[in-house]
Design brief:
Helix content is about 65%, strand content about 5%. It contains nine helices and two strands, in the order H-H-H-E-E-H-H-H-H-H-H. Helix 8 crosses helix 9. It is elongated, with a radius of gyration of 23 Å. The chain starts with a helix and ends with a helix.
């Protein structure tokens, strides 16, 4: 798995995202745990030192525990997401509204406008967060409008 991560997941996913985010904000970033000496050391470790009692990165956690309080790293992963829900209610609302107008949906004939308009109304009035359902519809509509325009 370490080889597969090194050859595909890291360069094709994680490092690309880091690089794009950093360039967007004009940040200079470093990935210290990818120093070849650290990688060679990690690959040389026996499995028991990498995963112990179902806990991954065991040796790294032990080392970190000498310098950092455990409550800062012994916790579940916390991802981050874009504020799509609020964007749909604010800065991209007009764009979204155009793509899911009832008349347009009727004219195209692919999607039933009634449930889409219902979840849109619930979303923009903050009754429910339907941002991810709406995003799928909006991406389809954007794709459709792009391909119908050609």
């Amino acid at each position: 798995m370490m080889v597969l991560d090194s050859l595909s997941y890291l360069p094709d996913d994680i490092l690309v995202k880091l690089d794009r985010a950093a360039m967007r904000e004009s940040l200079e970033t470093r990935v210290p745990l990818l120093d070849h000496r650290v990688i060679e050391f990690a690959w040389s470790l026996p499995h028991e030192m990498k995963i112990k009692d179902g806990t991954g990165k065991w040796i790294l956690r032990r080392l970190l525990g000498k310098y950092v309080p455990p409550e800062l790293f012994e916790r579940p992963k916390m991802g981050f997401a874009i504020p799509l829900g609020s964007w749909l209610r604010g800065p991209i609302r007009d764009w979204a509204e155009e793509l899911i107008k009832e008349s347009l949906l009727d004219q195209q004939g692919f999607l039933d406008p009634k449930p889409i308009r219902k979840i849109w109304s619930e979303h923009v009035s903050s009754q429910k967060d339907h941002s991810y359902l709406l995003w799928d519809v909006l991406m389809f509509q954007a794709w459709l409008s792009e391909h119908n325009a050609q």
